[in-house]
Amino acid sequence: MGESxxxxxxxxxxxxLLPVILAIAIFMxxxxxxxxxxxxxxxxxxxxxPQLKIQSILVVYTLVLAICAxxxxxxxxxxxxxxxFLLAVIFFTLGSLFAALSLTxxxxxxxxxxxxxxxxxxxxxxxxxxxxxxxxxxxxRVINYAITPALIGPILGPVLGGYLVQYMSWHWIxxxxxxxxxxxxILALFxxxxxxxxxxxxxxxxxxxxxxxxxxxTFGLEYSINGEQKWITFPLLIVGFILLxxxxxxxxxxxxxxxxxxxLDVRTYRIGLLGNLIAxxxxxxxxxxxxxxxQVALGYSPSDAGWLLVPIAVxxxxxxxxxxxxxxxxxxxxxxxxxxxxxSLLIITIGFVGRFIPIPLLIVILFILGVCNSxxxxxxxxxxxxxxxKEQVSSGNSLMVxxxxxxxxxxxxxxxxxxNFYVGQGWFVxxxxxxxxxxxxxxxxxxxxxxxxxxxxxRHDDGDLMxxxxxxxxxxxxxxxxxxxxEKIHQRKA
Length: 494
Known about the structure:
The chain has about 500 residues and is mostly helical. It folds into three domains: about 1-200, Up-down Bundle (Growth Hormone, Chain: A); about 205-255; about 265-494, Growth Hormone, Chain: A (Up-down Bundle). The chain has helices at about 1-45, 55-80, 80-100, 105-135, 135-145, 150-165, 170-175, 175-190, 205-225, 235-255, 265-295, 300-320, 325-330, 330-350, 360-385, 390-425, 435-450, 450-455, 465, 470-475, 485-494. The longest helix is centred in the first third of the chain and has 45 residues, at about 1-45. The protein is globular and about 60 Å long.
């Protein structure tokens, strides 16, 4: 009896503190991501690296996230959510410490790899534990509470990063993670539940082929920026594409592949995945380009540059509660086409922002960009997985996360590539680097524009069930029923 009571109290303690652990973990990760962008010019100067070629510390982190994300669930199923989460916190915190102590770009890049390994497991494992600790009715309420720091981090990060760099040093943007990591570690040690999943055979061969393909393509683009190592670009790109094509044929033959090719048979998933990738190229480039643009081209201080990034985060926070109403009112197709068009125009508009633009006007432009970005993410993510069957959701969601991280990696890589290309053409002298930034913004905005053609392939009724534009009972569609009933959705989408 006493043992049962003790177990009950322990479970209650888990349920109370688990959302807090996830919230702090998300806050630490989001703070680290956003705080770093403001510090890039100072890091480049301190390490004696070109300011426009410092993107590797961003690229390598997102690349590791993309590669390691698919195995986080496998590891947690094998050794338990508690041990996996503890390892993730240790890796992330140690990576932060080594990054703060780095004296060269290579050391900093390797430290970011360690951070990326931890970051790839940190949030997914905590979410998994939350899903298993709460029933479906409670989960939505709890997860909304837990992800609130993800909205606060982008607001606080750039400002805090700007002041730390300006009045202390860039090393402190990594040192700040250590006390936060220590708090998360202590809480997780005592209050993180240890759930394990059903053992299954992991597709290691498929994972290696897929991961190496992404790795080769990303570093092919990365080396194209380095004048001394450009010769390796083309071979890496060729190898990368060959590996990904090889994975496609391998997955078609494999009984239980890492990412099943049948996912692409679902039309909305196929369109959503491709649209996600293209649209995010320009969107993902902004956190990298804007701090550099404000500090290197326009001459703002790190703290002022940090404050100028806040309107984007505030705009995203502002529109979050009403996105579902917008989707219900207008539909997914119309929202995605027009919103993608607005984002591409806003990115191009920023390219024409000069030194003498009124600050209030710049704030308005950045605020609207934040509104459009938040709307875009919600619409793309929900549409992409909305029509998947139950047995497809896990694999489909994993591939979508990898796709998002890959888009973030490629967005930064493309932005750095174009920026250095325009600077290196000799068209612009160093005093007029602003022109090179302008052309880069125009180029990235134009890339984003092509996503409108992808979303134009959607039907007017795509996503209507999720948006609440169709009554489930009238249509005879119940997403909680088994697949034979769910098949009606696929018939409508075929």
